[in-house]
Design brief:
The protein is built from three helices and no strands. By secondary structure, the chain is mostly helical. It has one domain.
Length: about 60
Amino acid sequence: MAIGVGKAYVIGLAFVAAGFSSFPLLLAVGALHAVVDFNHFIVCAHFSRRQATLITLALIL
């Protein structure tokens, strides 16, 4: 799960500003992102790039 440096700074600042109480929420969002990435990886292995993107979007929605 690769994120940009700017996103990492924003997440870190939000984490500190919330007094570290946002850790469970950040952990849940990170886990959800990992699941979506994993599913996209599996779908991409079996379909073309365009089809894989549409299927992944359909699974999310």
